[in-house]
Amino acid sequence: MVRISFEQKPYRKLMMATWGANCVASPSTETKAGQTILEKDPDTPGSLGIAISEAIEAAVTDKSGKTRYSLGSVTNFVCMHQTVIGLETKKQLEKFGEKKVDVIIGCAGGGSNFAGLSFPFLYDKINGADIEIIPVEPASCPTMTRGPYVYDNGDTAMMVPLVAMHSLGHTFVPPPIHAGGLRYHGMAPLVSKAVEEGLLTPLALHQIESYEAGVLFAKTEGIIPAPETTHAIAAAIREAKKAKEEGKEKVILFNFSGHGLMDLTGYDKFLTGQLTDYDLPQEEIDKNLELIKHYPKP
Length: 298
Ligand SMILES: Cc1ncc(COP(=O)(O)O)c(C=O)c1O
Hints:
The chain is about 45% helix and about 10% strand. It is built from 13 helices and 6 strands. It is globular and about 60 Å long. Pyridoxal-5'-phosphate binds next to helix 7 and helix 11.
């Protein structure tokens, strides 16, 4: 588990322990990839790219041959698998008698929940439907809005093949925001391609605006959203306000990707004024992209 999430989301590791897993913070001393990163930066918050490298190393070096590693996001097959969300949503909208959706929103870490909701509607858009589709990312890990479309590795130790995607560089370690699931340096290749084709309108939001939206949602709907999900809610609120200002009635659809009951530490920090927004300096982006500038171009 990525170290910063290990610290910020203690109940998640306790759930894993309850079911019998031994959960270690990544980077760990248990893999070569983890050791190499810890030597360079012992205080790193970790990243999803590093955790993927460690998980793959643990799987391929396991002598029992019983260990398997399965990616839960980013890869196109995960995005396609999750389109059950969008397909079911279409059926629900039919039941509500809603014929047209104007705006579709999902938070995007690796891209899977966003793709899952939006791709069935993207098909309609490609075939002429007028729909605005917005993947929302954190301003501190702005893969689609500030990262170029390049070939890059999906993990930090470069164990997986190159993929064409929007990326901040596989060595990029995002600031320790509470939406840990959005701290990924790249983006699903299919989502990235759709951005390149001008089919999507990516948006980057800061965590404080997102938490404000999460708290408003909790007060009005009674459900506490995950910090990742609050990014989609904040974007939906922006769109609703815009529609009101324009005097237009719009159907705005967003994906509620998860509850926040494992993330109450983040809410505690927000409610007690301890959260900050992180502005990502351009030099930080350039530094990591420099390392992949010799890679082939998509
Ligand atoms: C609640 C929640 N939403 C969204 C995400 C982002 O992942 P993806 O972009 O693959 O949907 C995560 C990732 O951990 C998550 O935990």
